[in-house]
UniProtKB/TrEMBL annotation:
GO biological process terms, semicolon-separated: protein deubiquitination
Coiled coil: 507-534
Keyword Coiled coil: yes
Matches recorded under SUPFAM superfamilies: Cysteine proteinases (SSF54001)
Name of this protein: USP domain-containing protein
Species of origin: Pinctada imbricata
Basic and acidic residues: compositionally biased ranges: 1196-1212
Amino acid sequence: MLGSLFVEEDEVDIKNLGFPSRKLDVKSPPLPRSQCRLSGISNQGATCYLNSLLQTLLLTPEFRENLFLLSEHELGRLADKDKEDAKVRVIPLELQRLFVQLLLGDRQSVLTTDLTNSFGWTNNEELQQHDVQELNRILFSAIEESLVGTSGSDLIQTLYHGKIVNQIICDVCGKVSEREEDFLDLCVTVAGSESLESGLADSYCQMEVMNGQNQYRCGQCNKLVDARKGAKLRCLPEILTISLLRFSFDYIKLERYKETGKYMFPMRLNMAKYCEKDSTEEQWYDLFSIVIHRGGAHGGHYYAYIRDVDAIGQWTHPDEETLEVPADPSTGEVDFIQCDSPIELIQAVLANKPNQTLSLDKLGGEINSQTGVSWSKRFKRQYGPLNKFLAKYDDKFVLDTSSKQVSLRRYNTPRDGSGEPTSLDKSTPQSHKDYNSKKRSASPPPPLGSCWFSFDDVRVHPIREQEIQKTFSGKSSAYMLFYRKSTFERPSEAMGNPSYQIPDSLIAEVLEQNELLRIEREEYDMKMNELNLQIHFRQWYQYNNGALHPIDYQSSFLQLVIDRRKNIEDLKIAIMELGGELIDSEFVIHRMKEIPSGFHLYDDISIDNDKQIKDLYVEDGTMLFVWDGVQVGGSEVQTGILYEPVLLNISTGTKQHAVIRGFPKNMSLKSLQRHLCDILNLDCDSTVIKRIVGEEERKIVTFTFDQYEKSLSEVKLKDGDELLIDVESQSSSSENVPMSSHQQPKVFLAIENRCKNTQNGAQLKCRIEAEKSQTIGDIKTLAINKCGLTDNAESYRLRVDDEHIGLRPPMYEQLTIDDYGLNKFLLIILEEGEAPKSNEMTLTIMTSSCDLDLPDFDITIDRNSTVDYCLQCSLNWAGLSDDNWHLRKTNWCGEAAELLDDMESKLETCLVQHGDRLLLEKGRIPPKGFIRPAIWLYPTPPRHHHGNGGGDQGSMVSWITQGLSSLWNGLEQPSSTSPTSEPILIGDVEISLKSTLDDLKIQIMTLNSLSDVTIPTTDFMRVRVFSDGRLGGILRGSNATLQKLKLKSCDKLAIQILPQEESLNINQVVLEVSKRIPNTKTYESATEVLWDTSQGATVQSLKQMIADACFIQQELISLAKHFPTKYEWMVIKEQAKKQAQQQKSKKKATKINLRQAPYSIQDGDTIGVKNLQFDPLKTDDFSTEADEIGRAELNRLAEEKRKQRKERKEQSEGGIEFNRPKRPEVGLTIKVENFRS
């Protein structure tokens, strides 16, 4: 907002003028290795724990070299991994290639995708955070399994495995009971200890006394005795891994937390005192890797501090290291937004300021300005307040507490022979580029093999050994420690040699990749520095109406390709070679830009021949104007942003005197008045300038006398504004006056040519001056001529391209500009296609919902066309011959909406309008007045019967059951345990809505799937509505029409074949009754019962019916209705009477109607029944285990939605969310093929 506040009036801020910016249309190659010569590992999403462990294994020479000793003869070839009989040990092969890339590849970071793929991770495991201690055990186990049967089968066992012996010593007889265990890492509890030595002593030096109620049964004494229990280290590995157990559980708050207190560990560790007594010699280990966890108990980030044992990397003092901050590859400037390190961010900000100093407040504002996020939102949660952060890193920054000034700490550097300080000792501002490349003087590094580096995913940098002490405590604290035996000695040829022991084949492979990378970087460098410039010559332009205009749009410039790193002298030479005779003996080069009034010239870039082109912000597509610097076509041209013309629409109230032209924005309103009077031949003393404002209700506003002395920009006139020259001086009132019809000025329209048949040389953009009364057909004719098109005008049409909505429908040519409300700066598209006539409409047919490889297309048809005709036109255009298609309307955002199922209806009757989008979908629509529902066969329901059925009924049931069984057995039901357990789709029927329910049943009986089932009459079939996988209401009334039953084509119908005839009336409700098994959460199989509500749908009536059906006394029954979507039961109670008795009115209490809210009992509902005689406790608890699981799942989904709403709210407020939600823990696995057979 304040970016140009301190720019002088005659200065030009080129970056804010809207000139073309460079577009990165080419993928950038991987960055080369950093200054330390060590590569990082890219994070795939949440693989920081893997990256830290991999870097530790890489810089463990004994592990790395033994891995490289395994050849392809033992491990196999990666090219054969997909062959059936080939046994390829993919994990060690991928580890080899990853290590070679990290050691020799010319990349700043390496991807681990191939390695994680070899782990069998195919379900986004790389996006799930895991524990590095868990990974350490699982990865070593996977490597051991992968190396079975090779010479490296004992690699992990030799280097990392040790043995612990657990002992119990009897205090009576002295017997020692032992149990030996193998360990991969020693787990030491952090809570209650202050150092690693004390933690190890507690675990392996202290003996637990077993007495009192905790006595030990001695096998030799054969009784409970006092004893001592403890553990000792029997065998130590060559590489000692120690896992610090920093996570504990708070039994009061019932949550995990992280121990952040101080916990020290030594650089050298003597393990002899923790071993068995017979181990007399010292066991010294040297620390060489620390895996650090930053964060809390529910998430965080892993990185590692590792000692470079073989001196592979190049160590520099951290204060002298080249700062490698992210940069824009096209400009070389610092990309502050991508700068994740607060130290580097502040250093980059201060380096570009005078004296490298800012006040504390301005530093915070600069961080907010450069990154778009304040310090508080981006870094405060992790690093604390800005002032405390600066005080903490006083080795890098100087914070003056009195003046609140912050500056970069400068180091004493040697002076040259002249006695002058070196460049860094001078307090001069530096550019970002100089800042990124400047290095401080070198200081002596630590001895070879003693240099420490920080490995944080892709970023690797040297650290001082003192930095390790900061990992003793806090949120960023040590989590795993790796020690190696002090007796290990490295051969001299391994020091500083990253290719030591690497097979030649792998070296050749990575060198070839490095060469390809070099070529790719060179090509990228050339591409990024290649500029395509438009060179315009004065001979091809004329100056009129306050701006430059090309004489011929088809040949107004020449294209020049040049390297942006060349200087202006090279540019001039290239222009002279390009222009030839068009070049004057003395010429200048100005930057040119197209504006509404034409073209305007800005700054002169040809002043300094030694300047590079890139330093002048010349980018792709920049227009450069070559001229003598004075005149164009005999007219003097003023340059610079102050003389930038404003396009004004001037009117005098008559069409003959309308003027549209540009005027310099620094011109005063009074000068404009005199200039217009000269053009229009008016008396300046009798004229007044007025402004026309408003779009729909247009008004005239008169300028005040003070405003006449101000410039056009000061009175806020902008491109496209309309002015009126009033020749009556007495009308110079400042009141708003409505505008009369004869004062309507002209408008200008921007036309873009998008015709596919455009020939070379045809103009792609043009501007047209027109009156609002002109028709769209007139505008089209003008546009065709302006664009240089020669085809028949009938083959083109115009449409508006709205920046928010997109392309609007083609415009009717008989309508005027005013009818369409075309205003200034609207973009109008000229394209191929016939314009719609007044009786036609253009519709867009979308094919995204069907499997057609077709783009969306337009059709133009008569407004009175039917839906069927529209469908046929769409099918003809798409080349489809079958009739298995239909159309559907869409809503405002293009989603499927109402179905156009009445094929004989007119489009206008269906509210389809010009420009609407219709969706073409598969599926035939039945004729008007017909429906085609899908029919599903459901199992015959078990029903409770009163009394015994006769013999005829028994034989009827057997007959029907036999037919249904053959039907289910004849159809393929996947993994069905019972032939009647699942519904079956048996087909669909097409039937008139005027048909009766009996007609529907008869037509269903004729389906092929039911041909083997003999159904005596239609009363043996029940038809129900089927939705959401559940049976709904039963269709009643044999003579009721389907239209009366409100059936639709989209309905799914379920039929049930009954063992007896059924003819239900509206008072009969079919219910599913389930008896609860006492003292359990399960029910017996549901039984179907028929409830007659003709005498009232009361609780008493329902209880009586169920009591008779279940043979339970009515007073011992408790009932509840099940709501399956909520997994809840509502107990059915007689509440209306009690409420009525409490009322003081004498009105008769109304009984509750169970068919109304809140129970709303209807066909298919499940009623749970409790027998209180056997289940008297928790009379209101009807839940099952499935209900509890379902409610828990609903609560989980609701909680997830709540968290998502919270995240969206925080994101909408512009903050960065650091408090990440707790993720469910998922077990970490690595899949390994069986190599033991």
